[in-house]
Amino acid sequence: MSNTNGIGWISEEIARLKENGLYNTIRTIESPMDAWVTIDGRKMLNFCANNYLGLTNHPRMRKAAQREIDKYGIGPGAVRSIAGTMSLHVELEKRLAEFKHAEACITFQSGFAANIATIPALVSRGDIIFSDELNHASIIDGCRLSRAKIVRVNHCDVDDLRKKIKETTEYNKRIIITDGVFSMDGDIAPLDKICDVAEEHGIPLMVDDAHGEGVLGKGGRGIVDHFDLHGRVQIEIGTLSKAFGVVGGLVSGDKSIVEWLHQRGRPFLFSSAMTIPDVAACIEAVNILEESNELVDKLWKNGNYFKDSMQEMGFDVGQSTTPIVPVMLGEAPLAQKFSERLFEENLFAMSIVFPTVPRGKARIRVMNSAAHSQDDLDKALEIFKNIGKELGVI
């Protein structure tokens, strides 16, 4: 391997990615994020974004952001612990805690930041983390940063969790961490059963509900509400960049944990706070969700219709029980070819390949939204049907 100036290997590795169908082509959106987007000057059906409720371009969200910019300006100009906490941040955290029926809430710059802030603040060397094998990369990175021992638990396997806990006898502190909705497969963690195991052994439970907020529970309150586990799950991680349509992360739950993160959550202490328009739009998203269940209901209606129709056509949509529809294709080159053909037919749905998913599990992940009309869904289904037959998938 050549090593020109010490970085020649990078070009060679990129070439290998392209050769093996693993290269990630990044598309540039030239319009607001919505059910239809413009890419390369072409109007395209969008089934690629996490915009579950269609709030990214909602007029009330835009108006709220503009209104608070006029009042507070754009950015806080500091970290939260020095001079970056504004009254709007406090209002958002109070509203989110009420929305989640939690004792308290703290916000971060992203869901990723929320995980890498929380895990190292709670456990460290000599401690044990029981982590679902399909947990999100931000959980994995947070676990690594903590330097605690990571015990991988078979996916959504409560019996394996119980077994691993009994086998692990030397530790200082312990914690159980799981995703709520697994973003690549669309399945839901059996959080009620995991909570029972956690309580049996006196272990705190942390759930990352990034893909459950705005999707599960009454009015989109998430997986804890879905299973009616209020007061039993100590730490709930969330994101404001998916169903809420903005950007940011949150940790809700036990008041003492939120207070501790004010003192030891490194992204809170060492990175500037969320900007004013982001915070304002997030507050408006809470307002919209508290007023009506209409968008959540439409999301589920769209997701169920699309998934059922794909199954009837003969597509493998995995084990999803949410509006996420993984179209399982197997090998990366086929998934990339399928995505390219969709793009040629003005449908934007990217292939998901290794390392985001295991080798041999490549797919097109269809992200349904409340913003899609019935006509949008039918157009997309027809395109999938034609390309599926063309490429021998169905």
**What is the alpha-carbon Rg in Å?**
21 Å
Give the assembly state of these chains.
Answer: single chain
Pick out the low-confidence regions.
none
Backbone shape = globular
Major beta sheet, specifics?
7 strands, mixed
Mean pLDDT, as a whole number?
95
Number of strands: 13
CATH architecture of the largest domain: 3-Layer(aba) Sandwich
Give the topology string: H per helix, E per strand. Answer: HEEHHHEHEHEHEHEHEEHHHHEHEEEH
Helical/strand content category: alpha/beta
- What's the CATH topology name of the largest domain? Aspartate Aminotransferase, domain 2
Head-to-tail CA distance between termini: 42 Å
Descriptive account of the structure:
With 394 residues, the protein is α/β, with parallel strands linked by helices. It has helices spanning 8-19, 59-72, 80-84, 87-99, 111-122, 137-146, 158-167, 191-201, 223-226, 255-264, 266-270, 276-291, 294-313, 332-344, 374-390, and strands at 36-39, 42-46, 104-108, 128-132, 149-153, 174-179, 205-208, 235-239, 249-253, 324-330, 347-348, 351-352, 362-367. The strands form 3 sheets. A 7-stranded mixed β-sheet has the order 3-9-8-7-6-4-5, with helices on both faces. α5 (111-122) packs across α10 (255-264) and α13 packs parallel to α15 (374-390).
Please render the helix and strand layout as text.
Elements: H1 8-19, E1 36-39, E2 42-46, H2 59-72, H3 80-84, H4 87-99, E3 104-108, H5 111-122, E4 128-132, H6 137-146, E5 149-153, H7 158-167, E6 174-179, H8 191-201, E7 205-208, H9 223-226, E8 235-239, E9 249-253, H10 255-264, H11 266-270, H12 276-291, H13 294-313, E10 324-330, H14 332-344, E11 347-348, E12 351-352, E13 362-367, H15 374-390
Parallel strand pairs: 2-11, 4-5, 4-6, 6-7, 7-8
Antiparallel strand pairs: 1-2, 3-9, 8-9, 10-13, 12-13
Helix pairs in contact: 2-12, 4-12, 5-6, 5-10, 7-8, 13-15
